[in-house]
Amino acid sequence: MAITLLPLDVKVAQRVAEGDLSVLDGASNRDDIAGMVQDAAMMQAQMYAHNTAAEAPWTGYLAREDADSRVVGVCSFHGQPQDGIVEIAYCTFPGYEGNGFGGDMATALVDLALGDDTVQAVVAHTVAEEGPATRILARLGFEHSGILDDGDGDTLWQWVLERELPA
What we know:
Elements: E1 3-8, H1 10-17, H2 31-50, E2 60-65, E3 71-77, E4 85-92, H3 101-114, E5 121-127, H4 132-139, E6 143-149, E7 155-162
Parallel strand pairs: 4-5
Antiparallel strand pairs: 1-2, 2-3, 3-4, 5-7, 6-7
Helix pairs in contact: 1-2
């Protein structure tokens, strides 16, 4: 499967959050997913409201499947790199799991991040149990680097992919 990332810049995120899916460059959706697309855009718009310095590529994206133009998930950076570190997150929408889209989104974000010479490490967080997200990160070369409390009483695993230094 192949995907295209559709940038959710400030204006697009606000329009999608308000229900205008026409701005999604021809992407189509199942009716049951449209609400999730809107919710993802709303969360991205709220993040922009708190972090007005977010600029491409350090924004959010909807993942559109190339084969049928459906939006299959959402992924983003948690802001711009800080001290050479940038955090990624990705989520495949229900009904599309198990098709490789999570891996495609994570790969695309890692490629964008490491395409910037200032990024020395990419960080991701997962729930504290083995599952699809942990397998994706391990396959991409991330290493489990610690356990965190998310502030709401939930435990998270932290994963880090460090830029390989030239030999």
